[in-house]
Amino acid sequence: MQEQQIQAKQQEEQQKLQVEMAENEKDRQNDITLAEIRSAGYGSMVDINQNQVSDYQDAMKEIRETTQYREQMNMKREENSSKQAMENSRLAVEREKIAADKQIADTKLQIARENKNKYDSPKKEDKK
Asked: Whole-prediction pTM value?
């Protein structure tokens, strides 16, 4: 019981840490995106590669594609994380079920031993 509480606390702390790490990653990605947008704006009226589209628009298109890719990867990461959490929960329930079954079996064994001892005691024979 105490071991389960310790394990639950550790799991809760790990989940908090994962949430914090995810938030920090989102903040970093946001800062990167802002920096990319600012840097793209510096050459907004220039067309270096001469594709009839402003380099700013080219850069913004690339930023959108990169952001879209990051979002897809984050979604997959979150999906995997969710699956892992579900699997961990399922395993924890399975462990609890096994522990409960073991406790029930131990109790039944103890009762059976007591009953055996109770009914196996030698009977007094009446002498006539």
From this structure: 0.42
Q: Does residue 42 form part of some domain?
A: yes
CB 50 within 8 A of CB 59: no
114 domain-assigned? no
Count of domains observed in the chain: 1
pLDDT one-digit tens code per residue, 32-87? 878 877 776 666 666 666 666 666 677 778 888 888 888 899 899 999 999 999 99
DSSP state of 52: S
**CA angle (29 as vertex; 75, 43 as ends), nearest 5:** 125
Tell me whether residue 108 is in a domain.
no
Q: Which two tokens stand for residue 88?
A: 């961990």
- C-alpha to C-alpha distance for 118 and 114, rounded to whole angstroms: 6
